[in-house]
Amino acid sequence: MPTMPKNILKEGSNETLTLKHKALLQQQGYVDGAWTGARSGKTFDVLNKATHAKIGAVPDMGAEETRAAIAAAAAAFPAWAAQTGKARGDLLTKLFQALQEHAEDLAHIIVAENGKSLAEAKGEMAYSNSFIEWFAAEAQRSYGHTAQPTLPAVRANVITKQPLGVAGLITPWNFPAAMITRKMGAALAAGCTVVIKAPAETPFSPLAIAYLAEQVGFPKGTINVVTCAKGETEAAVGKEMCENKAVKKLSFTGSTRVGQLLMSQSASTLKKLSFELGGNAPFIVFADADVDKAVEGALACKLRGSGQTCICANRIFVHEDIYAEFSSKFAKKVDALVVGYGMQEGVTHGPLVNQMGVDKVQKHVDDCVKGGAKVLVGGKKGEGFFFEPTVLADLPASCPMDDEETFGPVAALYKFTSEEDVVKQANDVDVGLAGYFYTENVSRAWRVAEALQVGMVGINTAIISQNTVPFGGVGFSGFGREGGRDGIAEYQSDKLMVWGK
């Protein structure tokens, strides 16, 4: 069985993070260039997800503070938009350099507030920083174009790129740094100013990024961070971002249910939206696949972040001819994992982020087992928010993973017989974010890649997200793209200038 932690909980105690630069752990919101609390004076505690010790407290801000942040961003917008692309890019480059310099401290913050292992947190920081580096250069590569006139009285048609204005960014807890930089980097490069709603579970990463942005010279009001607890104030902050006419763009990463709510709340202001919502990624291993390569891919794809990623494999389909070999090798790999506090040496995986996540994972496992599934590895919850990395085989005809994202460390292995059937099963969901498959047949690779109804496909790889390419889904997984040259366009509009003779 995977190694699980014992006697790890330190509820009621305080934890002091060991940081080389202690000012990175900011415990105030950031509005109009000032570190500020909630006007009510209320705060909420942020716990270490592994030990449950308190690592700090941040303001429980609401609609009033959000309006102030939006007003600050709106006031800063004209001057920021008027900067040249090079000037904006140069400042983003300085931020990239600062993030690189403090990457180790930032990784330690991620381990504490999110729970992932130190190795994964360092990987997130490298990934996170790459978006600031990319968009620093994209600020100068934002091209307009011309079109030939078709009317005799027209001399030229010129199409330019215009920044939209204030961008509201609502980010999740599973990548507390990367989801900030992927949105913020694009918005700032485009000439927009931003208001960030930090996730209640992991507010310290966005605050640390804002602190470094302040240190390298970003003008006041350009970047604002609002912190709020789960519940009424969080709902009020999101509603204000949606209904405030000064917010011209809203970017959200989170569940489909919340995305639908935000879309409804934004209807009255007709702002531009981009939503990266839930997924239910199929991972298909064909009979002609390199089984060892597929096992390694499934391990990374399913259990990155303890399964708490929107693009992780939710359903693993394995051809019947290699099912026994794959399941045996995969279970052996999972069995060797070490679960615990991410700062401890040798730990590969951390806890889930909250009790709700643990309960959902346990229910999915229990429902599958009741239906006849076999537990090859794991299957039980541990102390606090820990849950054993789990492998389920021989999934029943109907189980929760068929149409619901587990968002936890449970690998569900389905058996299939034909390409046609497995593609049909893979597509039999409303969402379509990512999909993966392994095959050594080039013709099949093209067929399946085109047939899967998802926004992103990994072919013989489990790593698909990079700073240079567009990230996003189809169907109930949302719309819009982040990263690549498409990312900056999400924060711009096209303006046509028609020149007469």
Automatic annotation (TrEMBL):
GO terms for biological process: gamma-aminobutyric acid catabolic process. Pathway: Amino-acid degradation; 4-aminobutanoate degradation. It catalyses: succinate semialdehyde + NADP(+) + H2O = succinate + NADPH + 2 H(+); succinate semialdehyde + NAD(+) + H2O = succinate + NADH + 2 H(+). Keywords: Oxidoreductase. InterPro entries: Ald_DH/histidinol_DH, Ald_DH_C, Ald_DH_CS_GLU, Ald_DH_N, Aldehyde_DH_dom, Aldehyde_DH_Superfamily. The keyword Oxidoreductase applies. The active site is at E276. Residues 35-495 form the Aldehyde dehydrogenase domain. One of its GO terms (cellular component) is cytoplasm. One of its GO terms (molecular function) is succinate-semialdehyde dehydrogenase (NAD+) activity. Its EC number is 1.2.1.16. Belongs to the aldehyde dehydrogenase family. This is succinate-semialdehyde dehydrogenase [NAD(P)(+)].
